[in-house]
Amino acid sequence: MTCTERLEFDKVISLIAQRAGTKRGKHAIEKLSPLNEAEAIERRYAFIREGMEMETPPLYSEENLSAILTNLGGGDTLSPQELLEVAGFLDFLRELRNYFTKNDRWQYLSSLVSSISILAEEKQKITAVVKKDGEIITGRILELEEKLGDSRQRLRDRLGKGVTLRGGRYVIPVKAGKKVDGIVHDISRGGSTLFVEPTDCVPLNNEVEIAAKGIEQEKKRVLRQLNASLSKKLPELKHNLDVLGEYDAIVAISDISRRKGWQIPEVGDRFLRIIGGKHPLLQLKRDVVPLDMEIGRKFTTLLITGPNMGGKTVALQTVGILSIMAQSGIPVPASPDSVFPVFDEIFVDIGDESSIETGESSFSFHLKELKRMQDRAAGKSLLLVDEIDRGTEPDGGRAIASAFLEVFTGKNAITIATSHSTALKFFVAGEDGMQNARMETKNGAPTYRLGIGFPGESLWLETARFVGIDDGLLKRAEELADKNMLKTEHLLRELEEEKGRASELKRKLEEREKNLENQLESAQLLRKKWGDGVERLKKERKKILLEARKRVENLVREIRESNAKRESIVRIKREIEQELKRELGGMKKVETEKRVKNHNFRVGDAARIRSLDVVGRIIVITEKRITLQVDDVRFEIPPESVEPVDKPREVRAESRHHVRFARNRELKGEISIRNLRVDEAIPQLERYIDDVWLLGERNFRIVHGVGKGILKNAVWEFLSKDDRIESFELAPLEEGGDGVTVGKIRL
């Protein structure tokens, strides 16, 4: 069996196909299978996303159209009713294309239906001569029907009330033996009555027959003409039917997704994350406890343990079926923040498929499946193994299972296995790249929730009691149980707790290191701005002097051209230069005096660094230097380079044109920019951050999704350049993980 068969993907497909309105749509759904390229999956999801947004999409239901076109291609003549069905099909296609042409929201669906050939001329030809009741009407037919009606009426008038039809001829009943001049067309069953066409009525009967045959021939001619015209357009008709099938499949998938609450997840990353996942088939039967899981970053191998009937196998099946659905471009019953890699291959070893006919044991079949995984699995594979140590004695099963888990982990394949083996739990706890998980319990009963980080207990005694095993037998089993087993479980739990504390400490250290790097980058940015400001002032002063000298030279040139004496020119030039120096020096002196005059700074005052146009808090004052604290950076500068802030306010490293207003409007708690391009997302993000800051909010939350990380990187680059941002980081897993960035505004 294939992995799709073992995971019952065909049943999910059948469930979706029931929503299709056309045979081609059902067939398109039945052909769905996992795709190997993220771009192809995203493209399929783009169509589904638009379909899910449409509240009342145009629908068409056909039963016989495929057969009709097949008959047309085989040379059969379509009946009037079949022609009307083709006309109805063409009419729907026209409405469908007009619907998407008038609405520019549906980019992908519009591109799909844009290839439809309307064939308006063929549709008009049909409806012009074939009426809704299937009757064919042309001018020639109307003319012949008028003649036919006139001839029939004259016959009725001549033959009287007893007139009847025999062999298409109008006749009268005559008693046998009575002589009448005419042609006998029939005799009654008893032989007492003859049905005679009077001789003088033969011409009129001929007129009736000729008119009737003329009408029939005209109808056949019209049908031949219409069929010939449609036959020439058969390729376009078949293409239209194919497009309608694709459209119908999209609408069917979108419809069931909307009704069942299925969502479009992120696709294409290396790790697997399922948030609120439910098995689509179990979802139909009862309330399902959602599955939360992440694997592929800190570890690639997950061993699930816990009680029998606790949901271990269902967890495996849920991971498998959701992965196949996502990779097939079908929305999944899970949060849209879930992430699914594009697997090269999915391996499934669930259940016992050993064969009595071949004499193959369960264990040998199981080993062959594990070997197949060993031979073919790679870094982009998903391996799902139920009871990995099953089929043989415990020690041997544990040893083989451990060896295979080592191999799978070394291949970086995402591996999820289940077991009851305590020794295997210990093995996983001590290995890099592996993690224990458990199906949680409450008061000894399963809750069907998966908890990652701790191994589960088998609860063999509770399970046996639950299914009705005799208490006496259970008591004896408890006496025979290995007393060291409970100690082992306790030690294993302590080991996992220690491992969890170490992981948390590592996370905090990494976060602290990241914050220090951000602070260093901020300091370097401010220092660069300081240097740029000083350099800018130097260039401005130099520019002033050069312009002044140029004005002097121009003035001297004017004097020379007026024939002044050389001594006068030199004297005037010298005087002008001296005056210019005095003016510049005086300007500097006034500027300096203005800066230091009446500025009795005190520690704690807010002051602005002129050259950088940033505001800081004074922390040290000496005779020649003032030290300001700006965010995480200190500046020691001369007093003349500092000016007081007119009105005390919170210190912010911002330019003077950034003014903070209270705005009377409602602010959303988060912004979602998933599925937007970078050039679309950043302007929206900038407005959102402005609103958060202007309204004096402290926290912000940005939903950008995971995907390939392009949008997240753009968001982080933007935040890192905004000096209003104090800090930002990825949200915890339960709040969105890699798909969400949270942070704080600097107050």
Automatic annotation (TrEMBL):
What Gene Ontology biological process does one annotation of this record name?
Answer: mismatch repair
Q: Which UniProt keywords apply?
A: ATP-binding, Coiled coil, DNA-binding, Hydrolase, Nucleotide-binding, RNA-binding, rRNA-binding
The terms under GO molecular function for this entry are:
ATP binding; ATP hydrolysis activity; ATP-dependent DNA damage sensor activity; endonuclease activity; mismatched DNA binding; rRNA binding
- Per the record, the coiled-coil ranges are 478-593
- Give every Smr domain span: 671-746
By its UniProt entry, which Gene3D superfamilies does this protein fall under? 3.30.1370.110, P-loop containing nucleotide triphosphate hydrolases
PROSITE patterns associated with the record? SMR (PS50828)
Keyword RNA-binding listed? The answer is: yes
Could you tell me which Pfam families the record lists for this protein? MutS_V, Smr
InterPro entries according to UniProt: DNA_mismatch_repair_MutS_C (IPR000432), DNA_mismatch_repair_MutS_core (IPR007696), DNA_mismatch_repair_MutS_sf (IPR036187), MutS (IPR045076), MutS2 (IPR005747), P-loop_NTPase (IPR027417), Smr_dom (IPR002625), Smr_dom_sf (IPR036063)
NCBIfam families cross-referenced by the UniProt entry: mutS2 (TIGR01069)
Q: What is the protein's name according to its record? A: Smr domain-containing protein
